Amino acid sequence: MDTDALGRMAEALADLGITGVTGAFGVDASAVPEIDLIDPGQPIQVGYNPAISGLNLNFNRVHFEWRRVGDQYDLTMDARAERYQPRVRGSRMRIANRSLPVYTHALGEGVEDWTVARSALGSGGARWLPVRRPAVYAGEVFQTICASLGLRLPAPVPSKGQSGAVLVARRSPNVGPMVGGMLKFSTNLTAEVLGLRASAARGIEAEDLKGSATAMSQWAQTRFDAGLALHDHSGLIDTSRVTAQSLCKVMAGAARDQLFPDRLRTYSLKNKAGEPITDNGVQIRAKTGSLNFVSTFAGYLDLPEQDPLCFAIMSADLPRRAALAPGDRERPAGSKAWARRSRTMQNELLTRWSTLARV
């Protein structure tokens, strides 16, 4: 759900003639366990490592923008979308006169306090930062939008199990398009929420990501004869383990059972100059997976007049990854060049396999 979706719900309430609420304004995030973050080892400021809850707005991120005005900076924290751009009070930023760390974060009484190093701001910029209290964040944004429409709400408070008449509802798309978006944009939050909900649907009351991911590993073993030891659903935590053979078993079983038809991104093989080869009848349908000094490419190699081949390629420099200082983990030196070499290796392997399969 994004801010504009909340805006449409607020507009629908206003259209009913409602101008205020005299009781409490509860926000219920109990659909999945509330988890502060996916991976404690990630930098605190990365938007791909947000909190998880049953109420998730803007992928549980707040927009931080800074503009230089003379020798000072104008800072804003908002929950922007295309139509609505409400300011956020529950996350606030302060500039600190230091070089490192670039960001710090602390949970205060009803507020998330951020600081940013002045030396990192330059002339201006913007980025999305994670929120750690997503349900209250969503409630505050809804309260602000409602106020702009003349509908008064009290401050949001966490609640559970409320009942009453439904005045306005918004249903999500079904799971297919959500999986497609997750695969296209690598949205970790979507993977984690879907995994937690899948565990719950199977009667497994997992209290954390590892418990839910363990249940998923056991399911994969039963369904695909694939040995996995996963600690989350998105692959962000680097202690998960899977062999290339097991990953291929999952890919083959998914194709057999048509679990995600036509939801993978397509690629072409490349020549030595790095240009796509489009006239060889070969197409790749695959998902990438990237961490610092870790690169994975898995999917299907479609060949002319042959059944597709499943493949899984994984490469990593775990000692180099483990040696990264916390402040260097967002954009470590050498990581881009390392990733390019990994992609080159992947292309060379797929080129060879496509040639051998047609001999």
Largest sheet: 4 strands, antiparallel
Low-confidence stretches: none
Residue share in β-strands: 15-25%
Arithmetic mean of pLDDT: 94
> What is the CA-based Rg, rounded?
23 Å
Please work out how many helical segments DSSP would assign. Answer: 8
Count the E strands. Answer: 14
What would you note in describing this structure?
This protein is 31% helix and 22% strand. By secondary structure, the protein is an alpha+beta fold. The strands form 5 sheets. Strands 11-12-13-14 form a 4-stranded antiparallel beta sheet, with helices on both faces. A 3-stranded antiparallel beta sheet has the order 3-2-7, with no helix packed on it. A 3-stranded mixed beta sheet has the order 4-6-5, with no helix packed on it. Strand 5 and strand 6 form a beta hairpin. It is globular and about 75 Å long. The termini are far apart. The mean pLDDT is 94.
Question: Any key phrases for this structure?
Answer:
359 residues; alpha+beta; four-stranded antiparallel sheet; three-stranded antiparallel sheet; 8 helices; 14 strands
